[in-house]
Design brief:
Elements lengths: L1 H29 L15 H6 L5 H61 L3 H6 L3 H5 L11 H19 L4 H14 L6 H14 L3 H14 L5 H15 L3 H11 L5 H14 L3
């Protein structure tokens, strides 16, 4: 009897378990599967938003505005730098122009002072006019053919014009030397030698100048350029330290009245009065 009661218990238990299993299986079929991931009911946080692919639109606009503002400021600064660079260049150019103008003024004043104190040598050559260089009052040589005299005059005028009109020092030098060589009997030879001496002084060829002035004194004592040559030689020998010879030549140049005599006397008083 006890055995029958136990069998009934196990039969009943098996039936109950079978029923519960079937019920659980049906319930499982009715339920919707749960997807993995972040529950939709979790509110999005700031960190999750930043990590996502899409940056919020308000952040992009702020970055663009900031970059545009920086570009504008850089552009403005570049414009200011360009303007300041231009003003600096203008200021430097103005300073250079002022300096050059001042230098020209000082140079002109120095040349003017030098011309008043040393109004011979180079200045006599550079400021000579057509009459001074051309020496048109030179009397023709009496024993020369008129046609030859015309050729001589034309040749000398051509040489002197290179010096006067063209300021061609080298060309004038060659032409004057050629005139002396072609026409040694020309009455213009003393004049040609004198202006050669002036040219050599201008070029600081002192020995060549001394030779030309010496030839005039030795070969053309009565020529008007002889006293001028005596004055020039007096100054040359003074620079060479031959003071006695310098004084003698300057005194010779000061014998007759005129501009050359005044220059010679002044040079003697200024430089050789106590020697």
């Amino acid at each position: 009897m006890i055995i029958n009661s136990r069998n009934k218990f196990f039969v009943t238990l098996g039936f109950v378990m079978t029923f519960m299993g079937a019920s659980a299986h049906g319930l499982y079929q009715q339920l919707t599967p749960i997807e993995e991931g972040i529950p939709t009911y979790f509110p999005p946080t700031e960190q999750l938003s930043i990590v996502g692919e899409d940056v919020p639109e308000i952040g992009s606009n702020q970055t663009f505005d900031l970059m545009q503002s920086l570009r504008d400021e850089v552009r403005e600064l570049r414009g200011v730098v360009d303007e300041m660079s231009f003003q600096l260049r203008e200021l430097k150019q103005q300073q250079l122009d002022d300096y050059l103008d001042l230098d020209r003024r000082i140079g002109a004043a120095e040349r003017k002072t030098y011309a008043s104190d040393e109004d011979d040598d180079q200045n006599e050559l550079l400021t000579a006019d057509e009459t001074g260089i051309g020496d048109m009052n030179v009397e023709p040589t009496a024993d020369l053919d008129p046609q030859l005299q015309a050729q001589i005059r034309e040749d000398y005028e051509s040489a002197s014009q290179k010096l006067l009109r063209d300021r061609d020092i080298n060309g004038a030098t060659l032409s004057l030397l050629a005139h002396i060589d072609r026409y040694p009997e020309s009455n213009y030879v003393p004049n040609a030698r004198y202006w050669l001496g002036e040219i050599y002084l201008l070029q600081e060829e002192v020995e060549l100048a001394r030779q030309q002035f010496t030839i005039i004194l030795e070969q053309y004592q009565d020529h008007p350029k002889a006293r001028d040559s005596s004055f020039k030689l007096g100054k040359i020998y003074f620079e060479l330290g031959q003071l006695d010879l310098s004084k003698s030549l300057l005194r010779n140049a000061s014998k007759e009245k005129g501009p050359i005599a005044e220059k010679a006397l002044k040079f003697l008083d200024d430089n050789l009065s106590d020697k």
